[in-house]
Structures are given as C-alpha cells and as structure tokens.
Amino acid sequence: MAKHFIDINNESPETIKALLESAMTLKKNPRTPLLAGKTLGMIFQKPSMRTRVSFEAGMYQLGGHVVNLLPDEVGLGKREAAKDVGRVMSRYVDVLMVRTFEHNILKEICQFASIPIINGLSDHSHPCQALADAQTIIEQFGRWNDIHITYVGDGNNVCLSLIEISQKLGWTMTVSCPVGYEPRTNLPYILERNPIKAVEKAHVIYTDVWTSMGQEKEKADRKTLFQPFQVNSVLMPKAPSEAVFMHCLPAYRGEEVTDEVMESMQSIVFNQAENRMHAQKAVLVHVLGE
C-alpha cells in the first residue's frame, strides 16, 4: 500500500511529530541525497509560486527529479479522468503532488494510484501548509507545548488543517469569523466572534485571504463582511507581547492584513514560506521510505 499525505487528520500524532522532527533535521542538512534517482510528478489545477518552487527545489536538494504539469497539459477531471491520471502517472513517476480544487479528485487519484499522492492543496485542506506552520511555531517559541493559535477570517481549508494539526499536537485553536464562515469540522476548537477577545491569549495570530481562488464572484460582499476581522495595528496589541503574526501567502495587503503588520517585527510569514520546502521534503522522504 502506498503512503499518501492527503489530510493531517489521517495521520497519527506520532507521525506528525516525526515529520516535524525530520523537517527540522533536513533544514540543518539541506542537501542530503535521500531520494537520488526518484522522480516527483506535480499536477497544478491551481497556480502557486510557493508550492511549485518549494517542492521542486526540495526534491532537487534530495537528489531527485521533477516533472511539472500545468492545467492545460492534463485537463484533470475533464480531458483526463482522475482515476486514469492516477494509474498512468503511477507508471512514470515515484510520487505525485496534486494541487486541485475538488478534494474528491485527490481521493479518486489515491484510490487508483499505486504510488504515494501528496495534497498540495484542495478546497478541503492544505496539510503541507499546516505542517510548515507547526514547524515555524515550534522554532519561534522553542517549545512543542503550550501554544495557542487564533485564526481570524474565513474558516477555509487552511483554517481546517490548522485545527487538525493543533489537535494532533495538543495545542489550543480559536477561530474568529463571521456567521456562516466557520470551518467545516467536528473537531474541537474555540469559536469567538469578537476578534479582539479572540486574540487575548494568542501566541499566534493567523489569517488568510478573504476570497480564495474560485470565489471571485463573492469578492465585493466578502470584503465588506470581513472588514471587522482585519489584522491590523489595533488588533495585534490586544494579544500578549510575545505573539507573532502568520499568513500562508499570498497576502492582499490592505484587506485581511495591513502592510504595517506584514512588515512588523512580529511577522514571521517569510519563515513560514521557507519552511514549506523543509516540511515537504520531510513528507517526500516519509512517503517514499521503505
């Protein structure tokens, strides 16, 4: 059976901790040819600078090769059935990363593939981002315990994966969002509508774009609805002095976060971006391990 990395919720706490330890080790020794001769295939339905460059550079550092496929080259779910893509790519590459809209497409590829499948992002979850975020938080605070994350904004795929990884690591997760925009999960988290109250005990204040790819028609309405949930110079001082700001990027400065916060000493967003590569290298080594 191939090892897939599709959702944080599918992994045990022990596996998550081992992945994080591996990511930190690989960060200290970046050019370790553990995957020499291996090939990573990447399929993109959604574009991404960080996902493509971090996976590609990471695979090269591990001694492997990369084949990158753009949307028009595959036609995933339209020109090519997901189950066919899974079976064909299994005969060409050793591991496949898919960045897609529909999570069910990922699940179907997994069902028919004989190689590991990695979720580079779906409308349901973003496990690689959450893993990199957890690594960044542990490095920032120098501890694995006693962490409180407050997510302010749309309860989207990033928010869900943060809730999942917080549960695995025993962290506290608070979400502050408008009515109707809560994360779709049965996992426990604290819901606090007032963002000022939500950040009072937060070590991490996290946000994401108000309008994700595929939601462009809702942009005007969302901009008005989410305005009270902007992370700015009024909100940040309401958190403890050690609190940091995180964002998975890209950020729309002036919408979900102000330029002042993005450029502040509390912002660690570019540490997050770097750690995408290290965390994903750990995932690649894990799924391709014997």
What descriptors fit this protein?
39% helix, 4-stranded parallel sheet, Rossmann fold, 5-stranded parallel sheet, 14% strand, alpha/beta, 2 domains, 290 residues, 9 strands, single chain
Overview of this protein structure:
It is built from eleven helices and nine strands. Helix 1 packs across helix 6 and helix 1 (13-28) packs across helix 11 (269-288). The chain folds into two domains: 8-126 and 276-288, Aspartate/ornithine carbamoyltransferase (Rossmann fold, 3-Layer(aba) Sandwich), CATH 3.40.50; 128-273, Rossmann fold (3-Layer(aba) Sandwich), CATH 3.40.50. With 290 residues, the chain is α/β, with parallel strands linked by helices. The mean pLDDT is 96. The protein has a five-stranded parallel beta sheet, covered by helices on one side.
